[in-house]
Amino acid sequence: MLTISRTLSLPESELAERFLRADGPGGQHVNRTESAVELRFDVARSPTLPEPLRERLLARRDRRLTDEGVLVIQARRFRDQARNRDDARERLVEIIRGALTVPKKRVATKPTRASKERRLAGKQQRGKLKQTRSRKPVID
Predict the structure, then answer these.
(1) pLDDT per position as a tens digit, 82-135
(2) Which parts of the sequence are annotated with region: Disordered (predicted)?
């Protein structure tokens, strides 16, 4: 079980791990061992996730989320497989925890009269400054 919060945890059966060869440090050993981890979690078809949480996760513009709704996390930061595996799981937990909180709705506001006047005064001032930079035609 992968614990997300006190009320939510994911069973191991919903996580798919694949091990691959990682690039980076490790010398010749890196060519023989599969230390990188690719963790896949099917957000769209997970029976564990509550519907509002699933919608928030799928609505994110995240390059790790495929068109089919599968979240793919690649971990190759460390040189050994166990640490990369833990890293991938921690990153999955952080992504799901981030979607647990419901974002506040934005309340639309209008600019005040004073702020509109300040904006227009600034525009006029910049316009006058630019006019002074231009060359005046010489009249004979």
Answers:
(1) 999 999 999 999 999 988 888 889 999 999 999 999 999 999 999 999 988 887
(2) 105-140
The encoded tokens of residue 85 equal 């595996």
Amino acid found at 11:
P
With residue 38 as reference, give the H or E element that holds it: strand 36-42
Q: Which CATH architecture has domain 2-100?
A: 2-Layer Sandwich (3.30)
Where are the chain's structural domains?
Answer: 2-100
In whole angstroms, give the CA distance from residue 44 to residue 71.
9
Do the beta carbons of residue 57 and residue 84 sit within 8 Å? no
**DSSP line for 24-56:** SSSGGGGGT---EEEEEEESTT-SSS-HHHHHH
pTM: 0.70
Decide the pairing of beta strands 9-10 and 2-3.
Answer: antiparallel
Geometric angle at alpha carbon 36, from 31 and 38, rounded to 5°: 140
- HEC secondary structure over 64-89: CECCCCEEEEEECCCCCHHHHHHHHH
What is the amino acid identity at position 98? G
